[in-house]
Every structure is written in structure tokens, then in C-alpha cells.
Amino acid sequence: LPTGIRLLSDLLSRRLALLASAEQLDLLRHCRHGLEKESLRVDPAGHLVLTPHPAALGAALTHEQITTDYSEALLEFITAAWEDPARTLDELDAIHRFAYARMGAEQLWTHSMPCHLPDEASIPIAEYGASHIGRLKHVYRKGLAVRYGKAMQCIAGIHYNFSLPEALWPLLQEAEGDTSAAQDWQSARYIALTRNFRRYSWLLMYLFGASPAVDAGFLAGREHGLETLGEGTLYLPWATSLRMSDLGYQNNAQASLRPCYNDLDSYLASLRQAVSTPYPPYEAIGLHDQDGEWLQLNTNVLQIENEYYSSIRPKRVANRGERPIQALAARGVQYVEVRCLDIDPFLPLGIDLPTARFLDAFLLFCALEDSPLLSGDECRACTGNFALTVKQGRKPGLQLSRRGQEIALKDWGLELLERIAACAELLDAAHGDDLHRQALASQRAKLEDARLTPSARVLQSLREDRLSFHAFALRQSERHAAWFRGRPLDAVQLAAFEQSASASLAAQAELEAGQQGSFEEFVERYMAAIEPTR
Predict the structure, then answer these.
(1) What SS3 state is found at 147?
(2) SS3 call for 180
(3) Would the pTM of this model clear 0.90, i.e. be above it?
(4) Could you tell me which of 480, 473, 350 has the C-alpha nearest to residue 77?
(5) DSSP 8-state secondary structure symbol assigned to residue 302
(6) pLDDT in tens, 229-246
(7) pLDDT in tens, 264-313
(8) Measured at the alpha carbon of residue 340, what is the angle toward residues 339 and 344, in degrees to the nearest 5?
(9) Residue 18 burial (CB < 10 Å; 0-12/13-18/19+)?
(10) Backbone Cα Rg of the chain
(11) Is the dihedral of CA 37, 42, 46, 48 positive or negative?
């Protein structure tokens, strides 16, 4: 057995021992990993471009790998879910290289916090064509603009999609004598993973947070409590991730939305209620402007379930025309989407293999460790620990709250790494290497020396090189652009991307040509699909 098992809870020890047996060890080679990475398109001076989504990249509505998030200028690259995370990163790399081959002088902003932004009215909201679903995606984004402001929607990040092997769940279920339906058991275990993620995700913010500073213009005219670091830069001295702080969303509509993931049904019920409950300030805005143009999809707490901003989501691949809540309710949880990762400005892809391997060990630990239901007090403590870490995570001696008692972030972090080590060792045993243990060792070094964290390195660069946030982020973007452009795709790869782009444009045209009924009827049906039963 992995050496760390003796230090762990009885339940985690039993589960690890089961998976460490010779006949089961190969299972953990079949975890799946997918990435979604957002990046703003900027001009050579580092200003947001106002041009439409490049047609050479395909149709944002129907392309499987290249789309847009909030703005026409906010690209989103999406990989398939591969068993080998190296293959996932290779696909992300290839998408970048194709994009750079078709973007002209534009480049990608390789930082989570935005570049210099124009006035709000000039930030272009993403367009998806004339089909009903394309118009719905656009109106949803118009709703985000009136609810939260356009600048907030230009913040970028990386989403890490992770699933454990399907064959693992019945194995654990049988060993633990559970007699519930297999789908319900699997969903319950993913929800348990999510609860543990809530307990421990502050650690990810300390280790991988990379946005301690921001361009001063981003918060112009707003109260923020940040300090000045040279001309044009605001920061907090001990912050790890301003992106994940409360700077982004000073909105009260979601304040009551704190699903603590005690079961899938209550999680889905809370989202159904939110998309069906009117919110007076949004009612005051209205559905349409004076010219009859849509302003938002509805006047409820959430327009659609995706509006709920969370650091992790339980997910299921939806069928065409199916909403995320419908997919989860019908077929249960299939994977989790980790949403709290900053783009690392020191890495061309914003993420690397050691990070992915540590995340695998961390998420395996969250899945296999005991995960009691979250009480209200613990739920609030989880939220508090996360919020404290994103704003003060590197502060020497910082205290977090664990089971009602104060504990130093460093001490708790090192203790967690000792427990996660058993999962890293098991993954290494399955893969026949020691790469997960190496990844864990590099994270342990960050806890021992906060200067090694990405957030500290960003501030060190700003100070030592006497750069503003904008100048630093532009320099890194230029370096990464040169790296991608210096490695053009071969003819076969390029042709495959060209074909995908052409096919996506044709698919959008087909959707639009076959459109029937009114947009208003389409929105009504879309909203009614997940209304709570009364």
C-alpha cells in the first residue's frame, strides 16, 4: 500500500487499499481531463480589440474547440476530455497555434485580469448569429451586462474538467454495501467530492492564484480598497487571486444562493428556484428597452443556471437542446468542472502538466475522503476561508477556521498535502512513474516559501522590473505569442483545423436556415423546461 495510508481516515484508507489491489490498480489510468481556457484578443499595444470574432476561426456557436465567452474579444478554447493530461495540453497548444496563424497582428492576453478596456458601451458583446439559440446566447450576455457590468465579464480563467473512471463507482459501491441505484450512488459521490472541494479549495487559491494586481482603469470610479503599486496598478500585498475575490461581483441577487452540495436534488432545486424567482432590481430594468430590444432573458435571480458563479460545478454532457439542469436530473453527475484557476502568466498555456497532476491527486483525495454533510456554520467557514485566502493568502501567520478553531494556513496546507500524498502515490503506482509525487513536492515548496507562488512572482516582477500591471501582462503576452508563432502547425494539422472552421460555419448557416417559430416562443419554451414543480 502507499506509505501514507496509515495516516488517513479509515474510509479513505479502505478505498485506497481497494484501488491499490493488483486487479484494480489500472483503473486510475482512466481518469479524464478536459480544459477550457479564456483569453482576450488584444492589439499590439495591449488594448482590447473591437473587431468581430475572426471568421477564419470558425463559428463561435457551433465550433467544438474555439468559441467566445462573454465578448466578441474573449476567446474560449476547449479541449476534448483525454485520459492522458499531456494529450489535453497538447490539444490546447495546437488550438493556440492555429489561432495565432489566423489572428494577424492580434495576440492573446495571457493574464486573468483584463487589459486596458474601452468605455463599457464599446466592449462588444459576443454575437452568435440569427438562430434562436444564437440569439438566446447573445441576450443572456446582454443580461450579464446590465446586471454586473461589461468589465467584470472580461475577466478570464481556466476551467479544469475532471472525471474518475466510470468503472470505479460500482466497485466502491459494492465494497461499501450500498444498495441504491448506480446512477444515484455515482452522483452522490461526485457531490461528496464537491463538498470536500468547498472545504479545501482555499489551498488551490494559495498555490495557483496568479492575479494579485490589476490595471487601475479596471476599477475606475468604484470603491475597491486596493493599494497603489506604481502608476496605473492596484494590488493587495498578500493577495493570491483578485479574480476570485468579491471585486468582481458586488451584486446581492446571488447572496442567497449558497448551495452546500448536500445532495444533487437540493442543488438542482436551488438553481431551479433561482431561475424562477423574480428579483426586484432586475424587474426594474425590464425585459426590453424602449425600442423593444431584449435586455435580459428574464428578471429573475438568475437568467439561466450558468449565471451562478461557483468555484466548482457538478456536470453532465447535455444532449442537443437540453439544458444543464435537465441533463443532471435525467442522468446524474458525470464529471466536475473546477472553475477557480487563474491563468498563470508565466506559462504559455496558462497551466502546465505538474499543475494538472496535482489537481488530479487533490480531486481524487476529495472524492475518496470522508465527506460529511456541510452544516450552515461549516458552509460559512468554507466561504470565509476561500475569501480570506484570495485576498490575504500569503500573509505570514494567516489563520483560517477549521471546525470552529483557528489554524494557520501553512500548517493546514502542509497537513493536507500529507493526506493528498497517499492519492498521489496511488496515481503514480497506476501510471508506473513518480510524476504526481513530484507535482505534490513542488506545491509543498510553495507552502514552505510563499515567494514561490505565482501571485508572489507576479508582484516580484512588477517591483523588480519596475513595470505596471499592463506593461507586465503585455510583455508576457508578447513572449507567449512569439512562442506559439515560432511553432506553426504542420500541413495536416492546419488542414484539420481549417476543415473544422468551415464545418462550423456551415452548421451555423444550416441552423439559421431551418429556424421556425418566433424567438419569444423559443425563450418561453427554454425557460419552462426547468421550472420547479408546484
Answers:
(1) helix
(2) coil
(3) yes
(4) 350
(5) -
(6) 989 999 999 999 999 998
(7) 999 999 999 999 999 999 999 999 999 999 999 999 999 999 999 899 99
(8) 110
(9) middle
(10) 23
(11) negative
